[in-house]
Specification:
Blueprint: E1 7-11, H1 16-27, E2 31-36, E3 50-53, H2 59-70, E4 76-79, H3 99-121, E5 127-134, H4 145-168, E6 172-179, H5 197-209, E7 214-216, H6 220-229, H7 231-238
Parallel strand pairs: 1-2, 1-4, 2-3, 4-5, 5-6, 6-7
Helix pairs in contact: 1-5, 2-3, 3-4, 6-7
Length: about 240
């Protein structure tokens, strides 16, 4: 698969992996629809990229975005946007956590975008939809239970959506990108051996180009093997 001339929506494009994706796709000649929560956050985006502003946690704004895109040509969607909140629900003095917002951005938004935009993608053979999940979808860490649950749900949703697309004969590649720990604002101060955002984005695009149903990035290839052999060992590794 080549990306030049394709019109591709990238959510969470203001920073990290999303910005790296927008930059790499633009460099390859794609028409990038770079989506973020604010116009200011999209500053410095390649001139060729079209900037879209939408708070994906806002159901009305999300519906308006989908309606806007349904009348346009679209060859690809990368649901990359995500937020992670540290929370310990076992502590009586734990600070209130906005569970609904975290689930809305990480899980509900990709579901709604898929439901609304699959018919648009299906109009053009060779289109794709990628949902970015995580190794934490296989085995959670204790510090971010809502994030882990949202990624596990998104992984399951992506597989079911792929079954539906295959059974319906839709010409849309539905892919789960199991992302490794990447050096972004979200992971500041956590973990070692992180990929750069550019490395993570390159691996994702290589997987799409290769027609993969699942893209296992970096160390997630090893985690996949460990999880197959011993789910309990994978859980101990990621528990935190």
């Amino acid at each position: 698969m080549r990306f030049d001339g394709k019109r591709i929506l990238v959510t969470g494009a203001s920073r990290g992996i999303g910005r790296a994706l927008a930059e790499l796709l633009s460099a390859e000649g794609a028409e990038v629809l770079a989506l973020a929560r604010s116009a200011e956050a999209l500053g410095g985006m390649p001139d060729s990229a079209e900037q879209l502003v939408c708070d994906l946690a806002d159901s009305s704004a999300r519906a308006a975005l989908i309606a806007q895109l349904q009348g346009q040509r679209l060859n690809g969607v990368v649901n990359n946007a995500g937020i992670q909140v540290t929370a310990d629900f076992a502590k009586a003095e734990a600070a209130p956590v906005d569970i609904e917002r975290e689930l809305s951005v990480n899980l509900a938004a990709p579901m709604y975008l898929a439901a609304g935009l699959m018919p648009v993608l299906a109009r053009t053979p060779g289109s794709f939809l990628v949902n970015v999940t995580s190794g934490l979808a296989l085995a959670p860490k204790r510090q971010a239970p809502v994030y882990c649950a949202s990624k596990a749900g998104l992984r399951s949703f992506t597989r079911a959506l792929r079954y539906q697309a295959d059974d319906a004969g839709l010409p849309v590649q539905v892919t789960d990108c199991v992302m490794a720990l990447t050096d972004t604002e979200m992971t500041t101060g956590r973990g070692r051996g992180k990929l750069s955002a550019a490395e993570a984005a390159s691996a994702l695009l290589a997987g799409i180009a290769g027609g993969k149903d699942e893209i296992w990035v970096g160390r997630m290839k090893l985690l996949r093997l460990i999880h197959r052999l011993s789910p309990r060992l994978a859980q101990r590794i990621l528990r935190g």
